[in-house]
Design goal:
The protein is an alpha+beta fold and 284 residues long. It contains six helices and 18 strands. The strands form four sheets. Strands 1, 10, 11, 12, 13, 14, 17 and 18 form an eight-stranded mixed β-sheet that branches. Strands 2-3-9-4-5 form a five-stranded mixed β-sheet, with helices on one face. A three-stranded antiparallel β-sheet has the order 6-7-8, with no helix packed on it. A hairpin with a 2-residue loop joins β11 and β12. The relative contact order is 0.22. Bound molecules: zinc ion (ZN). Zinc ion binds next to α1 and α5.
């Protein structure tokens, strides 16, 4: 298996979910072993690699920071890149936050597919899990353990008639991300959104880029894309956050009521447990 990058650059315009600021973003081909690097074109092309070491905070979205320069809400784009099998990419943007698009990864996937993905000379490096590592915080639990493929078992539980308890087992293999996960949208509750707005967050949020749930229904007039769109979006977020490990994963993640901060905690615990993983070259 060879590493890949984009066949050509992709321009994307959109709005940041939390900042509400318009942003121009360009995804560009990158050399072998680059991984994903964010480039702030508004700040002298300052680079922030997509890496666990730069996770700054992750209450409502995953935010990276390097030397005080911030890059927010990176998870849906990283999920699309990992999900399309792109290993190396520069992500140039002229603002602080990745555009939210329709709240899923679908637009990114379509644009990447249209631009094309090309093979490079170097073999793919894989993050192979050798021992189980887990993280718990109250009733939130997450673990990663050895497996043949990249698999995710996810459980969510929200006291809402559209959600309740949803479970899904996802196996990452050719095209499954695009079919099963990519179009699942982010969601929020009306009471939560009022709170976020008071904190100057979710300023770009609308019914065009999120499922907005009321006490017993939803504000959106268009239907859900899947009956279990909510757990599918949670898997989308997990794939995006775990892309910060910098390479494809061989291992099984089990997540129960997880969120961005639990994902970050498990990743840093995993990286510290050096006996629990190794980086292997896929020369098949
Ligand atoms: Zn999300």
């Amino acid at each position: 298996m060879k590493q890949t990058t984009l066949a050509k650059a992709i321009n994307i315009m959109g709005v940041g979910l939390h900042t509400g600021v318009d942003v121009n973003m360009t995804l560009k081909p990158a050399p072998e072993n680059t991984g994903y690097i964010f480039v702030r074109t508004d700040l002298d092309n300052f680079e922030i690699p997509a890496s666990v070491e730069y996770i700054s905070h992750c209450s409502y979205a995953t935010t990276l920071m390097r030397r005080g320069v911030v890059l927010s809400t990176c998870e849906h784009l990283l999920s699309a890149l990992r999900g399309s099998g792109v290993d190396n990419c520069f992500i140039e943007l002229d603002s602080i936050e990745i555009p939210i698009m329709d709240g899923s990864s679908e637009d990114f996937i379509e644009l990447i597919t249209k631009a094309g993905v090309v093979k490079q000379d170097a073999d793919v490096r894989v993050f192979k899990v050798l021992e189980r590592v887990e993280f718990e915080q109250g009733d939130r639990k997450m673990s990663i353990e050895p497996a043949e493929n990249y698999e995710i078992d996810c459980i969510i539980d929200f006291p809402h008639p559209f959600i309740e308890r949803q479970t899904l087992h996802f196996v990452f293999k050719n095209g499954s991300f695009g079919r099963e996960i990519a179009s699942a949208r982010t969601f929020g509750f009306t009471h939560e959104i009022e709170m976020l707005r008071k904190a100057n967050l979710a300023l770009g949020g609308s019914l065009d880029n999120a499922i907005v749930l009321t006490a017993d229904g939803m504000l959106n007039e268009t239907p859900l894309r899947f009956d279990d769109e909510f757990v599918r979006h949670k898997i989308l977020d997990i794939i995006g956050d775990f892309a910060l490990l910098g390479m494809p994963i061989q291992g099984k993640i089990t997540a129960e009521k997880s969120g961005h901060s639990v994902h970050a905690s498990l990743m840093s615990k995993l990286l510290k447990a050096e006996h629990a993983w190794e980086i292997v070259t896929d020369d098949t």
